[in-house]
Amino acid sequence: MPAKLHQATWSLRSSREPEVSGTRGKDWLGSERLLNVQRNLLFLNCSGLGISMAMDQAKESESRTLPQSQLEAIAQALGDTEDGLTNSEIDRLIVECRMVDPGPGTKWKRIYNAFAEVQNRKQNRTNVLEFIRRAMAPVKYMKSPERFETLRRNLNGVLLFSGMLVDDRGKLVPTTTASTISDARRRANDLRADLKDRGVHPDVLAFCKEELLADNYFHAVLEATKSIGDKLRTRTGLQDDGGVLVDRALCGNPPMLAINPLKKESERSEQKGFANLVKGTFGMFRNPTAHEARKNWNMSKDDATDLLSLVSLIHRRVDASHMPDRTTAKN
Predict the structure, then answer these.
(1) Angle at CA 28, nearest 5°, toward 22 and 31?
(2) 201 and 116 part of one domain
(3) Most exposed of 141, 175, 296, 324 (fewest Cβ within 10 Å)?
(4) What is the 3-state secondary structure (H, E, C) of 30-56?
(5) What is the pLDDT of residues 86-141, one digit of tens each?
(6) Quick count: other Cβ atoms within 10 Å of Cβ 175?
(7) Domain extent for 132
(8) 122 plus 228 within the same structural domain
(9) CA distances (Å), 308 to each of 20, 61, 109, 311, in order?
(10) 258 three-state secondary structure
(11) What are the φ/ψ torsions at residue 301 (nearest 5 degrees)?
(12) How far apart are the C-alpha atoms of 298 and 13, rounded to whole Å?
């Protein structure tokens, strides 16, 4: 056993260092060893410097303060009446982040006052960022992932102005600072904001609200096209659906709903064209969307935005339509 151990030790040494003899050889070997030690020390020193610089940068980032306008906007996103944190969640987060509870008030104002107090007192944004991290922990939204996505999107629309965003893991990460509102909205991928910018009919937004805020284009299209049928049934009292509903509501002489006086041939042609437009919208978008597997429907954000704008146009024309006197209808 000792012989084998000695042999293994010798083999290991001989594989690392050349055999030398004499004083000059030993001096050379000693110099090489010293050089290797110096190289290792230099590497460790550089690595330590890099780690130290990264830590310093992180500390410097946390030590900065947020402008009052951004604190307020972040608080409004977190304390949104419909999509924000609950009062009990705010209570717990204020305690966990060692903030002073400002007392009763609206949700977003409570959050803002807590943010402002701790930032003014400590002259840094550390506690504010910790509040955001804890509020956006994905584990809190296991039963309602759509709520997480909604809150994350609303929050990112504000954080982008500070060069940060919450990623899909709920982590605060640095990013390029947004400079304009349109830039922030685009990068936050807020389809609802895009539709508002286009002036889309309120009925479309109301009917698709939950789906749109989850960026679920497939179901947004389905719900939007359903809203056309809902309005036609409400206006006419009919119970039909799809093409049959369109034929009974918008066709005929006169139709149940007319989008113009129907006195000129051009007006009657416009009425027929509008009926075909509505029927085509049902046929092209609603039927495949409702009956085909979602994986086979390639619906992009641009397609969804254009379709919802089309649905908005249909809503406006139906709103402005009138019911002609059908007692004197021509055969």
Answers:
(1) 140
(2) no
(3) 296
(4) HHHHHHHHHHHHHHHHHHHHHHHHHHH
(5) 999 999 999 999 999 999 889 999 999 999 999 999 999 999 999 999 999 999 99
(6) 14
(7) 68-188
(8) no
(9) 83, 41, 34, 5
(10) strand
(11) -65, -40
(12) 64
Q: Is there a contact between 110 and 118 (Cβ–Cβ < 8 Å)? A: no
Report how far residue 184's alpha carbon sits from residue 159's, in angstroms, rounded to the nearest whole number: 9
Based on its alpha-carbon atoms, the radius of gyration of the chain, rounded to whole angstroms, reads: 33
DSSP H or E segment with residue 78: helix 68-78
CA dihedral for 302, 308, 309, 310, sign (positive or negative) = positive
What CA–CA distance (Å, rounded) separates 249 from 234? Answer: 11
pLDDT digits (tens, 9 = 90+) for 25-42: 445 445 555 555 555 555
In a domain, 119, yes or no: yes
Residue 259 CB neighbour total at 10 angstroms: 20
The rounded distance, in Å, linking the Cα atoms of 124 and 118 is: 8
Distance, CA of 160 to CA of 151 (rounded, Å)? 14
Helix (H) or strand (E) holding 233: helix 217-236
Tokens of 103: 């007392």
In angstroms, the CA 75 to CA 84 distance is: 9
How many structural domains compose the chain? 2
Q: Which two tokens mark 292? A: 């085909």
Q: Which two tokens stand for residue 329?
A: 């209808």
Identify which of 43, 40, 44, 14 has the alpha carbon closest to the alpha carbon of residue 29. 14
Query: For residues 191-200, b (16+ Cβ closer than 10 Å) or e, as one string?
Result: bbbbbeeeeb
> Model's pTM, two decimal places?
0.48
Question: Distance between CA 234 and CA 136 in Å, rounded?
Answer: 41
237 and 164: one domain? no
Residue type, 160: L
